[in-house]
Write a structure and sequence with these properties.
single chain, mainly alpha, 2 domains
Length: 231
């Protein structure tokens, strides 16, 4: 990848958007979701008498730096895949959405529907405007249904759901943006991303009772975009 001034500028814009938009949303969205859940599940007025504290959802400078760096990296991949173009800008916004999902997932174990669904429909609209609507509509459909059938098989065999429904929606989102033909690669890269996540958790001794899948979804889409540029 040639790091010309346009590509570097694209990455700088992505990093700036990460700081100005993604970082605040990483705090605001989980807070709103927790507040909605609290109100839905509250059994008495006493439960609502103890409000959530926004400062509990704040992220550290280290997290903000990591988000900015991730945004810059996704900008580089988008620019490398499509050059300095509207297609690169659209793909870059999708990647920034994935950075937001990954950050929230790591901190709060969530893949918020309000973000996933917005990105899914944006991907379908973008593909329709570019004249490749059917490929990406099929991608969204297969992105959800293929792992859904695997989920059913796994549940029948083990009694457990080995993947969450939020992940199914995230695969549909990837299919909407990257197309039907991308899905075999995306599924494989997702599995590789999960393995890398587990290795990283073991190395840094951050093993928890759940596996964060947001970073694996980000990795899968970035890996596919990078492979398209290479191959």
């Amino acid at each position: 990848m040639t790091l010309d001034l346009q590509t570097i500028g694209f990455a700088a814009v992505a990093a700036t958007l990460s700081v100005l938009i993604i970082v605040p949303l990483t705090t605001v969205v989980p807070f709103q979701i927790r507040e909605e859940w609290r109100r839905e599940q509250a059994e008495s007025a006493d439960a609502l008498s103890q409000p959530l504290h926004p400062e509990e959802f704040e992220i550290s400078v280290r997290w903000k730096t990591a988000i900015a760096a991730s945004g810059a990296g996704t900008g580089l991949v988008a620019a490398a895949a499509h050059g300095f173009s509207t297609a690169a800008a659209a793909l870059g916004l999708y990647f920034l959405g994935l950075v937001l999902l990954a950050a929230i997932n790591l901190k709060h174990s969530l893949l918020p529907d309000k973000i996933v669904q917005m990105l899914l429909w944006a991907g379908l609209l973008n593909s329709t405007l570019s004249g490749h609507g059917s490929e990406h509509i099929y991608g969204a459909a297969v992105g959800y249904t293929a792992p859904f059938f695997l989920l059913l098989v796994g549940k029948a065999a083990t009694g457990k759901e080995l993947i969450g429904y939020g992940d199914l929606k995230a695969f549909a989102m990837a299919g909407a943006w990257l197309g039907l033909s991308s899905l075999p690669f995306v599924f494989g890269a997702f599995v590789a991303g999960i393995v890398l996540t587990l290795v990283g958790a073991a190395v840094f001794r951050r093993v928890a009772g759940w596996i964060p899948t947001g970073p694996a979804h980000l990795f899968a889409s970035l890996a596919y975009a990078t492979s398209e540029r290479i191959f």
